[in-house]
Specification:
D-Maltodextrin-Binding Protein, domain 2; 3 domains; 5-stranded mixed sheet; Arc Repressor Mutant, subunit A; 43% helix
Length: 282
């Protein structure tokens, strides 16, 4: 059976008439009518009842198209999967997430990935326009319609300090302890991160002292190690130089959330499955 004929029957059912279906499909009405008759002859039943006002599915037609629609959808998914074999998926990865990326890649066996260092905001734009198929970034405040997200991991916020700093020896620090110290933030993904961290201080009536910014998380750690201030943006999955230490925060500060982003129209099932596995296993 030629699947084109099945698609034509589906179009006729949606349009309610051969004339409207032929216009939508760009096929001459007599040709469409002949193909419908050929399909009905092959099946052995009449799919539509004809009248001057149009066409209507028969009981047999309703049963046939209900099952045929499932079959056509399955066929199209199979074609998309086959065509995707061997193709490279472009994955944007935000700064500071090398550890999450490594764990995600360890779950993938048959997916070819090209990793592109890209901030979360740029990932969203590139996913919408098709330059990226997916992104691994920090939870954005909002997303365009059509872009999906999956929470992969939550990291509790810790203060990163030089081991020789007077506050580094505490079992835990309050935001009040940190407010007078210079807070170092990364320039990448800094807007959402800064808002989250600064709101934590403001909720407690505190005014944090902002220190220098740095282009990347690695440079943030360099700044902290040099004594320029402390950081809240570096999470516990990152490998630290020996001269630095994390100290827990006493207050309830919203965690650093890592998400997988992708276009709902893009075939990235293996990537999403791997991200779901990470989310379950922590």
């Amino acid at each position: 059976m030629d699947l084109r004929y099945v698609r034509y029957a589906m179009a006729i059912a949606r349009a309610g008439s051969l004339r409207r279906a032929s216009a939508a499909l760009g096929i001459a009405q007599p040709t469409l009518s002949e193909q419908l008759k050929a399909l009905e002859k092959e099946i052995g039943v009449e799919l539509f009842s004809r009248s001057s006002s149009g066409v209507q599915l028969t009981e047999a037609g309703e049963v046939f198209l209900a099952q045929a629609t499932v079959a056509v959808d399955a066929y199209e998914r199979a074609v998309a999967a086959a065509r995707g074999t061997g193709q490279t998926t472009r994955l944007g990865v935000a700064d500071g997430l090398a550890d999450v990326m490594a764990r995600l890649l360890s779950q993938l066996q048959n997916t070819r990935l090209s990793v592109v260092p890209t901030g979360t905001a740029e990932q969203i734009v590139s996913i919408v326009d098709g330059a990226l198929q997916a992104g691994l970034g920090y939870a954005p405040g909002s997303l365009p319609r059509g872009v999906a997200r999956l929470l992969v991991h939550r990291y509790p916020v810790r203060a990163l300090l030089p081991r020789g700093h007077p506050l580094a020896g505490h079992e835990a620090l309050s935001l009040a302890d940190l407010a007078a110290e210079p807070l170092i933030m990364p320039e990448s993904d800094a807007v959402a991160g800064a808002r989250r961290f600064l709101e934590g201080f403001v909720r407690h009536g505190l005014h944090p002292r902002l220190g220098p910014s740095a282009a990347t998380h690695d440079l943030v750690m360099n700044q902290v190690e040099s004594g320029a201030g402390y950081a809240l943006c570096v999470h516990e999955g990152v490998t630290l130089p020996e001269g630095l230490a994390f100290v827990p925060i006493k207050e309830d500060v919203p965690p650093i959330e890592v998400v997988l982003l992708w276009n709902r129209q893009t075939e990235v099932h293996d990537l999403v499955s791997a991200a779901r596995h990470l989310a379950r296993t922590g």
